[in-house]
Amino acid sequence: MTTEPLAPAQAVASVVAAWDDALRSTDPLDFPGYTTPASSEESVRTALVEFGGRPAVWIDCDFRRVGGTMGAVAGERIVRAFDRATQMGVPVVETISTGGARLQEGMLSLLQMPRTVSAAARHAAAGLRSAAYLRSPATGGVFASFVSVADLRAAEPEATIGFGGPRVVAEVTGAYPPPTSHTAESALRHGLIDAIVDPSRCWDWLAAAVGVITAGPLVPPPGRPHGPDATARPEDPYEHLLRARGSGRPSGLEWAAWLTDEWVEIGGSDPAVRAGLAAVDGRRVVVVAMDRFAGAFRPGAPGPGAYRLAQRAVRLADRLGLPVLTLVDTPGAEPSPESEAGGLAGEIARTLLALAELASPSVSVIVGEGGSGGAVALAHTDQLFVLDGAVFSVIGPEAGAAILYRDPARVPELTRSLRLTPDELLRLRVVDRVLPEDVASVRAAVTEALAQARAGTKDSRPHLATAAAVANQ
């Protein structure tokens, strides 16, 4: 077995001090044929590192050392590393390739799963960040413990990822998993990791994920609108609605790119909602943006997974003490049988709950169509703005006409009755402010709101709007 040096593979970080090299595994089970590794050949090694003078704690678990398995010494090193990071008030970065628990140490190995998760929880409770980069393979009890509770996770392309490795799956189920399973690409598609990153960029991604270097900007997919909608805003509410839905009109993702200076993706399974650790004019913020050009079910219609991502992003912001910016643009949530079976209503409710419980300031901008409960799920914020070309409605007028009139010909009539245009929303006290549709004005308003919004005031606006609508008897 070769001894790998404890040093980052790239020059982004430098090792300041290696830790706990004197700890060495024993053979607690007297396991036949088991040779305990030398301290320097132990699967897990830990160190204090610096990124351009900014410190972080590094946990390195390497498959080339004892199969990357976690025994008592590996677990002890991990726990001590997290606790030191907590005491020092610094983030944790992890590079991981592992076969899981060390079978030759039996239950003493398995006990390291809860121990390491508890240590990670203490670090998280201190408001500190963590990020993991997964190499191949990343399986078993290491993947199913402290690694999977890291704030952000990335993997190298085509890495084998899963709780049970393919050989275990074949033994237990009688068949090997298909080639599309147990891969980094599958994990990304299902929202189990946040990015696929080439090994040459591993340390750049880790450093950006924990905020010790500046991340790159958000870049929307090709073919998207390059600027706000410059067409004239019609007076008729139905024509206003059609303009808000226009194919050349930017969605939340484009506005997120224009309003932020940097972006680290928080991955999810439904691209109808995107989220990121971002910065707006130097202020760190978590952004949740709806994208009506994309979706797991159909474009712009968020399903349960989209709202689970929103909850994860808001909860992360809450733990890190960061403000939240949401950008709303959807005709409504996806009501298909598959979406309903996935718990759509409950996920919308839990998204509202996450925002209701958020202890840091929150701001929302309706940038396009705000349709029904699927939109209000991201609009329960301390300040709520609407662009002057956007709409916000109790329901999509087509669905509303089907309910009230059973007559699609009456959609324009119902649109006018719903009072969904920005001026009407301001009159009804549904929103705090109407913003002109230019990037500089919106950015200035958002920057000011993020600085001045008072956390915990999000109920005031709906309370006042309700009071104005309730007649005293």
From TrEMBL:
PROSITE patterns: COA_CT_CTER, COA_CT_NTER. Component of the acetyl coenzyme A carboxylase (ACC) complex. Biotin carboxylase (BC) catalyzes the carboxylation of biotin on its carrier protein (BCCP) and then the CO(2) group is transferred by the transcarboxylase to acetyl-CoA to form malonyl-CoA. SUPFAM superfamilies: ClpP/crotonase (SSF52096). This is Acetyl-coenzyme A carboxylase carboxyl transferase subunits beta/alpha. The lineage of its organism: Bacteria, Bacillati, Actinomycetota, Actinomycetes, Streptosporangiales. Pathway: Lipid metabolism; malonyl-CoA biosynthesis; malonyl-CoA from acetyl-CoA: step 1/1. Residues 1-228 form the CoA carboxyltransferase N-terminal domain. It catalyses: N(6)-carboxybiotinyl-L-lysyl-[protein] + acetyl-CoA = N(6)-biotinyl-L-lysyl-[protein] + malonyl-CoA. Pfam families: ACCA (PF03255). Its cofactor is Zn(2+). In the N-terminal section; belongs to the AccD/PCCB family. In the C-terminal section; belongs to the AccA family. Its main location: cytoplasm. GO terms for molecular function: transferase activity. It is found in: Cytoplasm. Residues 224-452 form the CoA carboxyltransferase C-terminal domain. Its EC number is 2.1.3.15. Keywords: ATP-binding, Cytoplasm, Fatty acid biosynthesis, Fatty acid metabolism, Lipid biosynthesis, Lipid metabolism, Metal-binding, Nucleotide-binding, Transferase, Zinc, Zinc-finger. Acetyl-CoA carboxylase is a heterotetramer composed of biotin carboxyl carrier protein (AccB), biotin carboxylase (AccC) and two subunits of ACCase subunit beta/alpha. The keyword Zinc-finger applies.
